[in-house]
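Example (one chain per record):
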Amino acid sequence: MLFLVGALLVLGVVLGAVAHVPVPVSVAAGLAIALWLAVFAARERLSGHRSGRSGHRQGGLR
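Predicted structure:
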C-alpha cells in the first residue's frame, strides 16, 4: 500500500513538471522514453531466448 502511495506521489510530481514545459518538449521526452523502452524490451527478448533455452534443457523434469 505504501508503494502505491509513493508511486502516485511520483506520478503527480512528473505530471506537474510536464504541465509546465512546452508541448514539443513533452512529446520529445515521451518519444525518447518510448524508444529507450523499445530497445530495452528487444534486448531482454533476445537475451531471454538464449538463456531460457539452455536453462530449460538442463533443468527440465522428466
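Caption: Residues 10 and 16 are 10 Å apart (CA to CA).
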